[in-house]
């Protein structure tokens, strides 16, 4: 199944965006809350700074997911897709633990029954495309359209962003 966060029409070039409110979707397997989406950010861990390849920029999706099932499940973060349309979709380049400091996470994590985890997914996304949805197996599609406002991410408390 798929989860989407809508179309971020204000996301262009390196202009950061901030959700006006959290986006929440309940799926069959997971409850998902998209806490924020930023466009044009960098990422650092310790003394290492990661930059997207030429012709692209990082888009950060900060999300919280809760296992709704009564048993431990494997969360495949590498299969959470950011899409422009049905033909163009990207998986995350970097998965961060979503803590106060930048810390790389495993792309696949076991989540206990009723456990909730927070992660930051960094997508290397082409400069000439604007993401419209996030697709999550067991949840569906979350549309990003109209959900964003401009923001100054440098004054926000999101570790790992440069």
Question: Key terms for this structure?
Answer:
162 residues; mainly beta; Immunoglobulin-like; five-stranded antiparallel beta sheet; four-stranded antiparallel beta sheet; 0% helix; globular; disordered N terminus; disordered C terminus
Please render the helix and strand layout as text.
Elements: E1 17-19, E2 23-26, E3 30-41, E4 43-45, E5 48-50, E6 56-67, E7 73-76, E8 81-83, E9 89-90, E10 94-96, E11 108-111, E12 116-126, E13 133-136, E14 140-143, E15 148-150
Antiparallel strand pairs: 1-15, 2-3, 3-6, 4-5, 6-12, 7-11, 8-9, 8-13, 10-12, 13-14
Instruction: Please count the beta strands (DSSP E, at least 2 residues each).
Output: 15
Radius of gyration over alpha carbons?
Answer: 15 Å
Helix content range = under 10%
> How do the strands of the widest beta sheet line up side by side?
2-3-6-12-10
Element-level helix/strand string: EEEEEEEEEEEEEEE
- The overall average pLDDT, rounded, is 78
Q: Which architecture does the CATH hierarchy give at level 2? A: Sandwich
Explained architecture:
This protein is mainly β and 162 residues long. The chain has a single domain, classed as Immunoglobulin-like (Sandwich), CATH 2.60.40. The chain is 0% helix and 46% strand. The strands form five sheets. Strands 2-3-6-12-10 form a five-stranded antiparallel sheet, with no helix packed on it. Strands 9-8-13-14 form a four-stranded antiparallel sheet, with no helix packed on it. The termini are far apart.
């Amino acid at each position: 199944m798929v989860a989407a966060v809508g179309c971020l029409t204000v996301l262009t070039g390196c202009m950061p965006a901030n959700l006006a409110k959290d986006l929440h979707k309940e799926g069959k397997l997971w409850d998902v809350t998209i806490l924020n989406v930023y466009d044009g950010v960098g990422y650092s861990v310790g003394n290492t700074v990661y930059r997207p390849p030429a012709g692209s920029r990082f888009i950060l999706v900060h999300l919280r997911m809760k296992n709704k099932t009564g048993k431990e499940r494997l969360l495949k973060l590498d299969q959470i897709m950011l899409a422009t349309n049905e033909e163009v979709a990207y998986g995350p380049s970097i998965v961060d633990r979503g803590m106060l400091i930048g810390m790389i996470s495993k792309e696949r994590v076991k989540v206990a029954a009723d456990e909730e985890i927070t992660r930051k997914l960094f997508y290397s996304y082409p400069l000439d495309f604007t993401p419209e949805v996030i697709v999550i197996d067991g949840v569906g599609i979350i549309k990003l359209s109209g959900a964003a406002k401009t923001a100054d991410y440098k004054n926000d408390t999101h570790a790992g962003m440069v």
